[in-house]
Amino acid sequence: MKDKTLTGLLALFLGTLGVHRFYLGQTKLGVLYLILLFTGISAILGLIDAVLFLTMDQEKFDDKYNNNEYFDRPPRRRTSPQQRRNSHPKYIDHRKQSRDPRRNAPVVRKKNPYKLSGIQKYKDYDFEGAIADFKKALAVDGKDIAVHFNLACAYSITEQADKALYHLDSAVKNGFVDFDKIKEHDALAYLRIQDEFEAFEKNGFCLDEPQAPVQATAPEANEDLSISTDLLEQIKKLGELREKGFLTEEEFSAQKKRLLR
Hints:
The protein is mainly α. The protein has helices spanning 4-14, 19-23, 27-35, 41-55, 58-65, 81-87, 113-123, 127-140, 145-157, 161-173, 179-184, 189-192, 195-202, 229-243, 249-260. 58% of the residues lie in helices and 0% in strands.
């Protein structure tokens, strides 16, 4: 995948030799810069290219130079002028269309709403609500690595070690490889002090035998969720003061917002 900033720097410092064009795979343009080397034109062109690349919008750069490597959209297929004319609405051959209109409808990928709501509830310290939504998210996509990892964090915070281990194991089996995060993440602090975690770590962060959560469900977002342990304690103490009547609901909400800033 070509880097926009690197391309601009190559154009700025080595643009006279056309190095940035070779980097982008534009061999013919690179050779042209070399031919113009002794005329001074290639130096001017390199400077212009440097300004253009460094100020170019990232999406525009990716569309033009990373078309086959940009993961957020499928690569565009090259079409001939005749194919483009035939694809225009004026030239549609209705005889070739499927009789079933559903087969011609565009495929629309929907975001998992339960994953998004679970993340928001997690950030609002509603861990039980986050767990419920993450479970629903896994019913939509049981192999979502981020959801499994986030569930492990939520279960660890709520001191449910067996379920936390189960979902960490599921995240790893589905491709999670950032093991340093497991060893350092604040939300997994409770899990790491459990006796069974040492064996879990030695086994490559996998369970020796598959273990189901206590409440069996269907196979239950790269979004990382981290919360300071000290912050959790302060929120918990505020909740206790509210329960004892020392804080009103409005005062509790105001103090909570102040801590979250």
